[in-house]
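EI: anyone free to look at a 155-residue chain?
SC: sure, send it
EI:
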Amino acid sequence: MAATMNNLKSILTACLIAAGLALVGCSGDYAADKAGQPAAKSRMTDERLVQRHGERWAAVIAADFDKVYEYATPEYRAIYSKTHLHNQYATQLKRKAATVANIRRDNVEPEIAYVKTELTFQTLLPDGGNIYQDQVLLDETWKYSAGDWWFVEPR
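SC: here you go
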């Protein structure tokens, strides 16, 4: 029994070390200059992504959809108006808080990041007086382009 517990502890320790190394690797600098050399300190870090994520969600929570629009990819903004974006968001749902639960980079395209977001929300129940509050995990896609991270709007 003691040998089995020691083996489990060793396996768990190895898994934790591997997970820690994987997280450190995710925050690496993927940018390169025109000569193909690594850039001096890129904004393509997970820290910058978390910052942009927080700024965008602060705007969503404040229902400042003009500001939310500024975080959409340049490609989205070239096609869709602010009004279109505003109409995408259900205003009967009050977003209270959003935090990054996990970031995963695409293995083939490191400029694509998948962010799992824990969202706390409230809504008024049909009875007209009671408020329902819950949390949900959202899957978001972010793209590094033109020197910063941009939220990929689902439509």
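EI: DSSP finds five helices and four strands in the chain.
SC: 👍
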